TrEMBL record:
Pfam families (alphabetical): TANGO2
Superkingdom, taxonomy of origin: Bacteria
Protein's name according to its UniProt entry: Uncharacterized conserved protein, contains NRDE domain
InterPro entries given in the database record: TANGO2
Length: 284
């Protein structure tokens, strides 16, 4: 993922607990499976873990995923940290940091913050990343960046965003989409998830004076400043909207993905293939 904006209301007694809109940006040559319920065929390597009950896409190169949820109420999402002069080709794949939490490996802590503390112990082995993990039933959400000068921490209530820098770094597309999501999430009537997807499919490029300096050429910096990226070899491969709503003693989970892949692993641009799922989680 390269842009995630989300609204987190852990004290909600009714209505939205968590609302998210996210774009996954990736090289067009990298094959992946779109959003689906995982089965035993989806590789899981952690001791005692199981892919059953995981709803996510799957990276067919690295074997992990970029964003997913589970029937038990777990959630995780990841973005890469942009540091072109600090990339090791032999580093382990970052997507397994998401899938290990979702598949509930028995050798790992079972709380979001505990899991991130475990990840942080070996964080320097990986290329730069941001990782968000949550447990809706526990009403816990935490964040860690292995290129930040801070340890894993619970996320405070409010509207946040992550792109390819640390949490809430004010890059133009993050600031714009975080504000748009906050307005939609505050609506008195529940906004259809497709509105959040359409919000993220925005090709507007930031003015040069607002661009961050991340060590890449100016032309590339311009192209990547759009929420919805389109270049000949790289772009936004999919958009996901997710909402968790408190309804009495249960949580309703809704997910909608629009991607460039119908499941055949052939890229069609711009992507228009949609998948949606809805299920419930018992509240704590």
């Amino acid at each position: 993922m390269c842009l995630i904006v989300f609204d987190w209301r852990p004290r909600a007694r009714a209505g939205a607990l968590f609302t998210l809109a996210a774009n996954r940006d990736e090289f067009l040559r990298r094959t992946a499976e779109p959003l689906h319920w995982w089965s035993a065929a989806d590789s899981v390597t952690s001791p005692g873990s199981s892919a059953a009950g995981v709803l996510a896409g799957r990276d067919l190169v690295g074997g992990g995923t970029w964003l997913g949820v589970t029937r038990s109420g777990r959630f995780a999402a990841l973005t890469n940290y942009r540091a072109p002069n600090d990339m090791r080709p032999d580093a382990p794949t970052r997507g397994t940091l998401v899938s290990r939490w979702l598949t509930d490996a028995q050798d790992l802590p079972d709380t979001p913050l505990g899991y991130l503390d475990e990840v942080a112990r070996s964080g320097d082995l990986y290329n730069g990343f941001n990782l968000i993990v949550g447990d809706w039933a526990r009403r816990e959400l935490a964040w860690y960046c292995n290129r930040a000068d801070r340890p894993p921490a619970p996320l405070p209530e409010g509207t946040h965003g992550i792109s390819n820098a640390v949490l809430d770094t004010p890059w133009p597309k993050l600031v714009r989409k975080r504000a748009e999501l906050a307005r939609l999430a505050a609506s008195e009537t529940q906004v259809p998830l497709v509105r959040f997807v359409e919000m993220m499919r925005d090709p507007q490029i930031a003015p040069d004076r607002e661009l961050p300096a991340t060590g890449i050429p100016l032309e590339r910096e311009r192209a990547l400043s759009a929420a919805f990226i389109e270049t000949p070899d790289y772009g936004t491969r999919g958009t996901t909207a997710l909402r968790v709503t408190v309804r009495g003693m249960q949580l309703d989970v809704e997910a909608l993905e629009r991607s460039d892949d119908d499941g055949s692993h052939r890229v069609v641009r711009p992507g228009g293939f949609e998948r949606s799922e809805r299920y419930t989680v018992a509240a704590a």
